[in-house]
Design goal:
The chain is built from 11 helices and 13 strands. By secondary structure, it is of the alpha/beta class. The protein folds into 2 domains: 3-93 and 281-309, NAD(P)-binding Rossmann-like Domain (Rossmann fold, 3-Layer(aba) Sandwich); 97-272, 3-Layer(aba) Sandwich (Rossmann fold), CATH 3.40.50.720. A 7-stranded parallel beta sheet has the order 8-7-6-9-10-11-12, with helices on both faces. Strands 2-1-3-4-5-13 form a 6-stranded mixed beta sheet. Strand 3 (44-47), helix 2 (55-59) and strand 4 (66-69) form a beta-alpha-beta unit.
Length: 311
């Protein structure tokens, strides 16, 4: 009987989907030491994006045949090391596109219209009534939204933007059949009133938005990141915000989660969320299902549709 390790509680019980296999874990979050011990006799692994699947772990798991990452991005998985050891890697594409695009647009609106500040004002009892100069925010209609990464989620954000009469410019390795103009990053940063990040984390995109790029943005521009934290230089962003160099930021991801720099937590012009881009009941259930099905298919000698790499 094959053994499958689940590194964390999921939104659904995946054991019925893995009938005939021994499933361990899933009741508590496994830390690194517990994970290394658990994979010693594992044939399959369902992990989170915060679990580091590297050569050290793979060396502890001689029987491992498949890793199913409960995410679209696989920057936490050493794909080359998996391929070298004959370990298949699967992810959860497509199913979280709409939920993440919804959240990106929610952050854009929350920062642009100062919703969190308004909520805090009313709750504090400090609201004295309507005033013409109170919590003035950003207009959307007729403004420009720059989308960094026009993949599935970027295109879903662009569809939402059309309903708000936003003009779209985007960066991507190549032009795509989507609304908007394909431009260089420098052009996008200089022209956009809102910038939303949707590219994967790679060696090329790590630190993509740093001090120079932030300085190139409009002083009233709003930055939204629902992709991966390390794409943005957090120290540079905090410094620019403190100096009044941007209109604000909406962040759902961070470089060293769950740690969030104090300078960002203290800024009233940043809306901060705990990495909930895909956090809807339906989306998380579909993600867990895809992971379990991928493990089941690989262990049965079949190829699931959501393979990133195969042995």
């Amino acid at each position: 009987m094959a053994r499958v390790v689940v590194t964390s509680p999921l939104s659904i019980d995946v054991r019925p989907l893995l009938a005939g296999h021994e499933v361990s874990g899933g009741s508590v979050r496994l830390d690194r030491a517990a994970l290394l011990a658990a994979v010693a006799d594992a044939d399959g692994l369902i992990c989170l994006l915060s679990d580091r699947i590297d050569a050290e772990l793979l060396d502890r798991a001689p029987r491992l045949r498949v890793v199913a990452n409960h995410a679209v991005g696989v920057d936490n998985v050493d794909l080359a090391a998996c391929a070298a050891r004959g370990v298949a890697v699967a992810n959860t594409p497509d199913v979280l596109t709409e939920a993440t695009a919804d959240l990106a647009f929610a952050l854009l609106l929350a920062v642009g219209r100062r919703l969190v500040e308004g909520d805090a004002l009313v709750r504090s009892g400090g609201w004295s009534g309507w005033a013409p100069d109170q919590l003035l925010g950003a207009d959307l209609a007729g403004r420009t939204l720059g989308i960094i990464g026009m993949g599935r989620i970027g295109q879903a954000v662009a569809r939402r933007a059309a309903g708000f009469d936003l003009r779209i410019v985007y960066t991507h390795p190549r032009p795509v059949a989507a609304p908007g103009s394909h431009v260089a990053l420098e052009h996008l940063l200089a022209e956009s009133d809102f910038v939303s990040i949707h590219c994967p984390l790679t060696a090329a995109t790590r630190g993509l938005i740093g001090a120079r790029e932030l300085a190139a943005m409009k002083p009233t521009a709003i930055l939204v990141n629902t992709a991966r934290g390390p794409i943005v230089d957090e120290a540079a962003l905090a410094s620019v915000l403190a100096a009044g160099g941007l209109g604000g930021a909406g962040l759902d991801v961070f470089a060293e989660e769950p740690r969030v720099p104090e300078a960002l937590r203290a800024s009233p012009r940043v809306v901060i969320l705990p990495h909930i881009g895909s956090a809807t009941l339906g989306t998380r259930a579909r993600m867990a299902t895809l992971c379990a099905e991928a493990v089941r298919e690989v262990l049965a000698g079949r190829r699931p549709a959501n393979l990133v790499t195969r042995p």
